[in-house]
Amino acid sequence: MQADFFSNHNIKHIDYKDTEVLKRFLTPHGRLMARKRTNLTAAHQRALATAVKRARYMGLLPYLVR
Fold first, then answer.
1. What CATH number corresponds to the domain at position 33?
2. SS (HEC) of the chain
3. Greatest distance between any 2 Cα atoms in the chain
4. In a domain, 34, yes or no
5. Which of 4, 22, 49, 66 is deepest in the core (most CB within 10 A)?
6. Contact 25, 52 (CB under 8 A)
7. CB neighbour class for 22 (10 Å; exposed up to 12, middle 13-18, buried from 19)
8. Is the distance from CB of 25 to CB of 33 less than 8 angstroms?
9. Residue 23: which domain range?
10. Cα–chain-centroid distance for residue 12?
11. Segment 50-65, tens digit of pLDDT
């Protein structure tokens, strides 16, 4: 079984300030991709969702893209 993105890059903590990494997992419309598409573990997918929500709240990522 292939490891996920964060395990491959030795990322222990998913940081909401690292918007370039977070943008990899967003659709062109700004929505979070499903776990089937991202190939993340359940724990990493939950941490990613929390980081994206925090980045949106802080204004680092848009809520929606038009």
1. 4.10.640.10
2. CCCCHHHHCCCCCCCCCCHHHHHCCECCCCCECCHHHHCCCHHHHHHHHHHHHHHHHHCCCCCCCC
3. 37
4. yes
5. 22
6. yes
7. buried
8. yes
9. 18-66
10. 14
11. 999 999 999 999 998 8
Instruction: Identify the residue whose tokens are 């967003």.
Output: 26
Residue showing tokens 């993340």? 40
Tokens of 43: 């724990």
pTM higher than 0.70 for the full model? yes
The CA distance from 27 to 47, in Å, is 17
Model pLDDT for residues 1-46, shown as the tens digit of each residue = 568 899 999 999 999 999 999 999 999 999 999 999 999 999 999 9
